[in-house]
Design goal:
TIM Barrel; alpha/beta; 296 residues; 45% helix
Length: 296
């Protein structure tokens, strides 16, 4: 089935930057190889964690090509193609080079605050024009509008190439409704590291993780344990991160994970405006928690 390759742990890759603000392509290669070697099931390029809105169009293309080359077929690759202009999104789908890519992640249109009918029509155009399977991405805290369970299910039932949703609404009632009413081939993927086990226990199929950039082996092991139905053990594994995960998001994503990756030596601790690095106090808290984590 089309969606089977998106079960387990996906990682929303960061985009490393140099101190002069340019994309650090060598650091990106290090991150990709670290994550793939760590045992993740697939990677996601040009998502929220990639700081995609700050990337120029040509940079996005180069980032995807480098990820494809470094992955070299070892795991599936999902590329983010989503924005608040339906026509521009369709144009990207029609004209981009998706060789080596397995799927599209398309976020709910932001800022415009469309109705549910507007969301259905937007994603209908995406589905009609996408050359690859589509994972919907619902994240109301960023987009200003929530895609309801009814709209998600309507889209899943109408288009066979819409194969899943990354749910980051944190609304477990809504998420459970989707899981309860969906067809067997439709994947519900957690967009939140902290809720991943709860969503899997409800019938979800995994996570697209931020923490997995730094700790791919630990996150992948935890998710596989949960998918095997060993939830008590998986919870113990999640408990190891219980203090770290909130710190990663305390001043916004990807500031926290960039601090963590810098501590591990993968990249500079650089973001592009309007995003900025974590405050000194938060960086110290993350560093202290990492030291504690490494001793467990």
């Amino acid at each position: 089935m089309l969606a089977d390759k998106f079960i387990g742990t996906g990682v929303a890759l960061i985009t490393p930057f140099k101190t002069n603000g340019s994309v650090d392509f060598e650091a990106l290669k290090r991150v990709v190889n670290h994550v793939v070697a760590g045992g993740v099931d697939y990677v996601v390029a040009l998502g929220t964690t990639s700081e995609t809105p700050t990337l120029r169009v040509f940079e996005r293309d180069v980032v995807v090509r480098i990820i494809v080359e470094e992955v070299d077929g070892r795991v599936p690759i999902v590329v983010g193609v989503g924005m608040n202009s339906t026509s521009e999104c369709v144009e990207i789908l029609r004209t981009s080079d998706f060789s080596g890519v397995s799927g599209i992640l398309s976020v709910v249109p932001y800022y415009n605050k469309p109705t549910q009918e507007g969301l259905f029509q937007h994603f209908s155009e995406i589905a009609k024009n996408s050359p690859l399977p589509i994972i919907l991405y619902n994240i109301p805290s960023r987009c200003g509008v929530n895609m309801t369970a009814d709209t998600t299910l309507q889209l899943a039932n109408a288009y066979s190439n819409i194969v899943g949703i990354k749910e980051a609404s944190a609304d477990m009632t809504q998420i459970k409704d989707i899981i309860r009413l969906k067809s067997s081939g439709f994947q519900v993927i957690s967009g939140d590291d902290a809720l991943a086990l709860e969503i899997i226990e409800a019938g979800g199929s995994g996570v697209i993780s931020v923490l997995g950039n730094a700790l791919p082996t630990q996150v992948s092991t935890m998710i596989r344990t949960a998918l095997a139905g060993k939830f008590d053990l998986a919870q113990k594994e999640l408990d190891e991160f219980e203090h770290l995960i909130p710190l990663l998001f305390a001043e916004g994503n990807p500031a926290g994970i960039k601090t963590m990756m810098n501590n591990f030596g993968f990249c500079e601790n650089e973001l592009r405006l309007p995003l900025v690095k974590c405050s000194d106090s938060l960086q110290n808290l993350i560093r202290t928690e990492l030291e504690s984590f490494s001793k467990r």
